[in-house]
Amino acid sequence: MNIKLCYFCKKFCVFSKRNFSVQSMVKYQRVVLGIETSCDETGAAVVDENRKIHGEALFSQKEIHLRTGGIIPSVARQLHKEKIDHVVTKAVLSSGISLHDISAIATTVKPGLALCLEVGLSYSLNLVKHFKKPLIPIHHMEAHALTIRLLHQLEFPFLVLLISGGHCILSVVNGVTDFLLLGQSLDESPGEALDKVARRLSLSKQAECSSMSGGESIEYLAQFGDKKFTKQNPPMAQYQDCNFSFSGLRSHYERLIEMQENKEGIQKGEMLSCAADIASSFQHSVAHHLAKRTQRAILFCKKEGLLPPLKTSLAVPGLHTRYGLKVVSGGVGSNQYIRQVLQNLTDDMNMSLLCPPPQLCTDNGVMIAWNGVERLCAGAGVLKNAHNIRYEPRALFGTDISERVQKSTIKLPPLKNIK
Ligand code: KG4
Ligand code: ZN
Question: Which of 71, 285, 318, 328 is deepest in the core (most CB within 10 A)?
Answer without folding.
Answer: 328
